[in-house]
Design a protein that fits this description.
two-stranded antiparallel sheet; three-stranded mixed sheet
Length: 109
């Protein structure tokens, strides 16, 4: 098995802000800046938005009075693009979900 290393790559956000993201690097994968330009964060943002929608839909259906969801994303370079990895074939991912229901307070007469 090849060793996994990390590398910081330049990334631009939608508003043009330049940040550096630490990504996993695997031998043979392209981690350099494509065409001399930083990577765009769009694919990671889209993935995050889709994950949040998929997780919140059943939570809204359960109608808790309070909910929290905790998860992590790994950012990788694949075929010259940034991708967000929630579950990988070589590991597992974890969603920590807390739902709470409170009894309504009785009305005073």
């Amino acid at each position: 098995m090849s060793p996994v290393r990390t590398k910081k790559v330049p990334v631009t956000l939608d508003d043009g802000t330049l940040i550096y993201v630490e990504v996993e690097t695997l031998p043979g994968e392209r981690q350099d800046v494509v065409g001399g330009k930083p990577f765009k964060f769009d694919d990671v943002s889209s993935a995050l938005e889709s994950i949040v929608k998929a997780v919140t839909k059943p939570i809204y259906a359960a109608m808790p009075t309070k909910a929290s969801v905790k998860f992590g994303l790994e950012v990788e370079v694949k075929e010259g693009h940034l991708i967000a990895a929630l579950v990988r074939s070589t590991g597992t991912a974890n969603l920590e979900i807390t739902l709470e229901w409170e009894q309504p307070k009785p009305e005073k007469s």
